[in-house]
Structure formats: structure tokens, C-alpha cells
Automatic annotation (TrEMBL):
Gene3D superfamilies: Iron dependent repressor, metal binding and dimerisation domain (1.10.60.10), Winged helix-like DNA-binding domain superfamily/Winged helix DNA-binding domain (1.10.10.10)
Organism from which the protein derives: Christensenella tenuis
SMART domains reported for this sequence: HTH_DTXR (SM00529)
Family stated for the protein in its record: Belongs to the DtxR/MntR family.
Protein name: Metal-dependent transcriptional regulator
Length: 122
């Protein structure tokens, strides 16, 4: 899956937690993307069985989509925590960097970061 698809899944997960129900316009507003761009992405995610969309336009993550979104979000949170707590990076910069790093980091490196963060949590 490409970075943009991962960003959409993570955004859907966060919006579901916040709003309960998610529509394309909510995603467009959150990411500051055009509605046509979001609609195209939702079509791709639906074909890949990451989301379902009902006739009213409400979007839900499938089990596959939920699992992937949770993985991405976990990476984001742990990387952000590592950057702040271990390296002393300012929270707003750590947020932005974690958003980029979460998509390209290897599983091995992420696992080591997870182990480090878990060992050093206060």
C-alpha cells in the first residue's frame, strides 16, 4: 500500500473515533484535499477491501482496513513518542516527522523503536 492510502486509512480511523460516522467530505476537510481526490482514493480503497461505503456515503473500515489503520496509527504514536521523549524533539515537529517516517520505516527498525519505548516508559 502506498503512503497516501495509509494516510487515508489512518484519517478514517481517527475521524471514526472523533465523529462516529465518516463521509468523504470529512476526510477532505481533515486532510485539506479536494473532494474529487478523496472520492477517487475511496474508490481504490473500496476495491482493495479496506473500506465499505453505504448508499448515504458513510465510510467504514473493513476488518482488513481497521487492522492496517491501527498498525499505521501505532507506528505514528510510537515514533512520535520516541522523537519527543528520547530525542527531545518539539511535539509539533515530532508530529510532522512521525507522519512521514511511519510510512517508510522498516519493520525491523520500528520493532526496535517499539522495544526501546516500552523499556523506557515511565
Amino acid at each position: 500500500m502506498r503512503e497516501s492510502g495509509e494516510n487515508y486509512l489512518e484519517t478514517i480511523l481517527l475521524l471514526q473515533k472523533k465523529l462516529g460516522c465518516v463521509r468523504s467530505i470529512d476526510i477532505a476537510n481533515r486532510l485539506d484535499y479536494s473532494k474529487p481526490s478523496v472520492s477517487r482514493a475511496m474508490s481504490i480503497l473500496k476495491k482493495q477491501d479496506y473500506i465499505t461505503m453505504d448508499k448515504s456515503g458513510f465510510i467504514e473500515l473493513t476488518d482488513k482496513g481497521l487492522q492496517k489503520a491501527k498498525e499505521i496509527y501505532e507506528r505514528h504514536i510510537l515514533i512520535q513518542e520516541f522523537l519527543i521523549e528520547t530525542l527531545g524533539v518539539e511535539p509539533d515537529i515530532a508530529e510532522q516527522d512521525a507522519c512521514r517516517i511511519e510510512h517508510i520505516i522498516s519493520t525491523r527498525t520500528f520493532d526496535r523503536i517499539r522495544e526501546y519505548v516500552e523499556e523506557h516508559r515511565q
